[in-house]
Amino acid sequence: MRWGMAVDLTQCVRCYACVAACRIEHFLPMGMSWPRLVAMETGGDSPTVSTYSVRCNQCQNAPCVEVCPTGATYQREDGIVVIDQDKCVGCRYCIIACPYQNRTFLSKDKDKGFFPGRVETDFEKAGKKLYRHQVGTTEKCNFCVERIDAGLAKGLKPGVDREATPACVNTCPAQALTFGDLDDPNSEISRLIKEKNGFQLHPEYDTDPSVYFIDGKIGYSDEPELRDDSRQEPASAGAER
Amino acid sequence: MSEKKIIKTTCKSCHGGCGVLVTVENGTIIHIEGNPDTPTLGTMCSKGLSSIQHINHPDRLKYPLKRTGKRGEGKWQRISWDEALDTIESKMKESIEKYGPSSIAVSQGTGRGYNRYTHRLARSIGTANIITPGYICHSPRLGMYGLVTGYGRLYCDYHGWGGEFPKTQISWAKQLEISSADSEMAVWFLNSLKHVKNLIVIDPRETALSSRATLWLQIRPGTDAALALGMINIIINEGLWDKEFVDNWTYGFDKLKERVQEYTPEKVAEITWLKKEDIIKAARLFAEDTPGCIQVGSSLERQANCGQTVRSIICLLGVTGNIERPGSMMSWIVPDSGLLEEFFQELPLTDEMRKGIVGSETYRMGAARTAHSDSVVKQLVNGDSVVKVWFSVGGQQILHLANTQEVLQAIHNVDFLVHADQFMGPMAEHADILLPAAHWLEMDDIYNMHPRFMIEAINKTVDPPGEAWPDNKIFNEVGRRMAPDLWFENVEKMLDYTVRKANITWKDFSKMGVLAKIGKDQIYYKYKTDYWKKGGGFPAPTGKFEFFSTVLEDMGYDALPYFQEPGESPVSTPELAKEYPLVLSTGYRQPFYFLSQYRNIPWLRSFQKDPVVQIHPDTAKEYGIEDGDWAWIESPRGRIKQKARLFPGIHPKVIMATANCFNPEEPGPLHGLLTSNPNVLTSNDHCDPMFGSPDLTALLCKVYKVE
Ligand code: SF4
Ligand code: SF4
Ligand code: SF4
Asked: Which of residues 504-543 of B touch A (CB under 8 A)?
């Protein structure tokens, strides 16, 4: 079992819903964002506009795990890299080690409210009780382990059942994000990566990320062999995706 | 004991209508996410999700206020709702007595599900002077669809309910993928792209979709009619038109054929700055790989030639037979609740109302049922205004109307201005009475999706702050005072009335959440049945799809489509172009803002602080502008500044400015209204002859660095 995510660059429309959903899911302080959008607008005769929705890659050879002196950052059996806030001493070695800049140190000035000095909203007050953010420690995307663990305990399947699937994946209006088990060759994510030549960011770092990206053209005008009947199947509204 | 419940509701943060699940614990919203059991499949964008920051926002308006100082001075006194409503009632009645009911104007914003209240209130008072952004967004389309087909609403069939998805899609001046505009949801559109063979994107600048599309046409802003007519020319001259449809179900094909002869590929290429081969390719793809549909963007309706542009596009749909066919343009059957427009249509427009409409004599399509906003502005500025009392709900006309300086002057000249809003903004600052409005998370209402195949329940999740009221209550209470027989005992009764045709009450509907006609409930090829006309046909005067419009002919307009240069362009005003050499388009939108909304929502503002103008790197270099510099954008009307983003995907002769922006945090009364809002640059002097739409998205400008 190795949880992974595929981000489809042909679908992503730079709407920031994934960022907002993560902020809600984890009651993130105003200065904190676990996922980020990285815009690419290339020049030349046919410039390409792409948005990379990036978050911790849950690398299998994770440099952040290697450098962590306290064991606060560690990798779970299912491949997810997590941080134990009780053990993190805020040395920030991991922030320097992560070649993808996916970690953020929660400093005092990042621990801001929505409306600093004016009002603390009911949502923020509730968040303080429901989700812990420890100033002086490092944070990052955790693949929504809370949802995965609670979902698995109920017998649900991450990537298939919403309750067990990361918040950003569920909300994406473009359905650009796919979550699932990379070790299962029959999972939707494995199929996508195989069919669409999924790639990892900076393979030269040798970190083996669990987040893949896929890209391609829209439409099948250049690939007549794909004109099969399955494309004509009517979708039923309200169906599970 | 803590109480936790999940409430199903509908997002109204844009013109979409995503199904939402809100978790409320002890009266506090602790979570919000999409509802998977609705047609939007549980997806939600950043705008809707960030609604959490609307609730308890410290700047929310909480109590009715009355102005105590000079207009716009920012001096207010808290008053009761009774006093506010009493004042509104007496001012309106006084004005009606002195000047007649047409002296009352009712204005609205994008009308996300509440248009029916605006119109009912106006009609119940006896006026049709409704100021709406319709004429620059959606209405020209609907008006033209209505003329050509006899039926007013056509939408793309992204759903495959008829067994087929569109094979060729044209996304024309639109980014449905980021806007869920007109309730044709991004999630449906993007899903349909998985089935598309050809995607053609027509846009002056590159987007994520265009860079992966089959064909991208980087058109000169404002020349879209020429492109459509050129495509029809190719389709007809190459014999690619849909013979079955054209022979049996259309009127005036030969005349259209004759008309488009002047739009040769060569000539159109010259007009539009496109390659001739690309125009030919687009025409062939659209005619050969059917079914197909065209997503029409409101940028086309923000141009003074919009009537003909939209018309040309409909004719393109007609020659290719892309009407009522699965995977083409559909007019959807409405749910059992009927057309919610009946809520106001049941109060007919009287001759007196019609006569009182400002601009109706000039703009006979756009100002037939609502006022021509720019004419209202001009009259107010000239001091001969029909409109004396302005009741404004849900939108800031001060931002979206052309030529802000004039609009400001006009607003200063209104006798009495009432504005309802959630926050203090440039429009609110100029009101005499200011009413606090509720957010969609704080109200019960019925959302009416533009494609009209479904309605959705908006269910209250928490109380509004202070004494804020939902729009429907504001309308009902004003209505009860002005025309007691035509309004309701309370909002619940009004909502019961709205869904009565489905034999349900509001409470029933509130639990159901969605009432829809989807899948097999929809009927395709209605013109081949008795649906519109016994024996088949369209509900237009000739019973056919009218390439040659008999109605327009009667009205004295050209009965055939044609291309008209924008009022200001390198071609129509070459002298002016010497001083203002660049084409200015103002259609740039960010997915996390909605028109003038949300720049005060911290999460959303964190995504982009300042308004951005896209400039080609070569152009920027020529004018000494670097990425991230503030740049002045100047037109003959004035200048604004936006942050330059060097973007290789935009045409070097075009710049694209961010629309509708102000800075809520800047001091009132203007809140930065004149700093960056492109309507400071736009013109209300040339308007579409049919709809009155001004040139907002195709003008001339120059740029230079802010030193
Ligand atoms: S939610 Fe989806 S479409 Fe929107 S930015 Fe994130 S990945 Fe892209
Ligand atoms: S992306 Fe960075 S933080 Fe995440 S596992 Fe890899 S090295 Fe560690
Ligand atoms: S997987 Fe979860 S934690 Fe990671 S970015 Fe998405 S929502 Fe945030």
From this structure: 516, 518-519
* Residue with CA at minimum distance from ligand 3 atom 2: A144
More confident residue, A104 or B3: A104
Amino acid at B341: E
Q: Which of B145, B465, B494 is nearest to B322 (CA)?
A: B145
The closest alpha carbon to A167, from B188, B4, B43, belongs to B43
Of the CA atoms within 13 Å of residue B531, those in its CB half-sphere come to 15
| CATH 3.40.228.10 domain position(s) in chain B | 150-333
Nearest ligand to the CA of A18 is 1
| pLDDT greater than 90 at residue A233 | no
The CATH number, out of the four listed (3.40.50.1220, 3.30.300.30, 3.30.160.20, 2.20.25.90), of the domain defined by the range B4-44: 2.20.25.90
Residues forming a β-bridge with B654: B583
Query: What DSSP assignment string belongs to B38-73?
Result: STTTT---HHHHGGGGTTT-TTB--S-EEE-SSTTS
Nearest-CA distance from A64 to chain B in Å? Answer: 27
Residue A241 has pLDDT above 50, yes or no: no
Average pLDDT (A100-112) is 96
DSSP strand pairing (A177-181 vs A3-8): antiparallel
Q: Whose CA is nearest to atom 3 of ligand 3?
A: A141
What's residue A225's pLDDT?
43
Residue spans in chain B of domains classed CATH 2.20.25.90: 4-44
Architecture per CATH, domain B65-135+350-439+465-488, reads as: 3-Layer(aba) Sandwich (3.40)
- 8 Å CB contact between B479 and B30: no
SS3 per residue for A7-66: EECCCCCCCCHHHHHHHHHCCCCCCCCCCEEEEEECCCCCCCEEEEEECCCCCCCCHHHH
Please check the confidence at residue B180 and state whether its pLDDT lies above 90: no
Percent of all residues in chain B with a pLDDT value above 90, rounded to a whole number: 92
Token pair for residue B344? 């106001």
| Under 8 Å between Cβ of B463 and B24 | no
Reply yes or no on whether the pLDDT at B297 is more than 80. yes
Minimal Cβ distance to A171: which of B44, B175, B214:
B44
Our answer on whether the CB atom of A64 is closer than 6 Å to any ligand 2 atom is: yes
Task: Report how far ligand 2's centroid is from the alpha carbon of A207 (Å).
Answer: 8
Q: Is A114 on the interface with B (CB under 8 A)?
A: yes
**What does pLDDT average to over chain A?**
91
Using DSSP's 3-state secondary structure scheme, residue B603 falls into helix
DSSP for B99-139, please give it: H-GGGEEEEESS-TTTHHHHHHHHHHHT---EE-GGGGTTH
CATH 3.30.360.10 matches A3-230: no
E-strand ranges in B116-275 read 130-131, 155-156, 168-172, 198-202, 215-217, 250-251
Nearest to B607 by CA among A99, A39, A5, A49: A39
Provide the chain A residues 174-193 that lie in CB contact (below 8 A) with chain B.
Answer: 174-175
Summarize pLDDT for A137-173 with one digit per residue, the tens: 999 999 999 999 999 999 999 999 999 999 999 999 9
| Entry pTM | 0.94
Q: In the prediction, which pLDDT does B647 show?
A: 92
A226, pLDDT greater than 60: no
- To the question of domain B150-333 being in CATH 3.90.950.10, the answer is no
Residue B332 has what pLDDT?
94
pLDDT of the residue at A223:
58
Contacts of A235 in chain B (CB under 8 A): 159-160, 191
How does residue A238 score in pLDDT terms, banded at 50, 70 and 90? very low
Residue in B604, B586, B574 with CA at minimum distance from that of residue B698: B586
Residue in A36, A142, A144 to alter for ligand 3 test, most ligand atoms within 8 A of Cβ: A144
Average pLDDT over residues B18-43: 96
Residues in chain A: 241
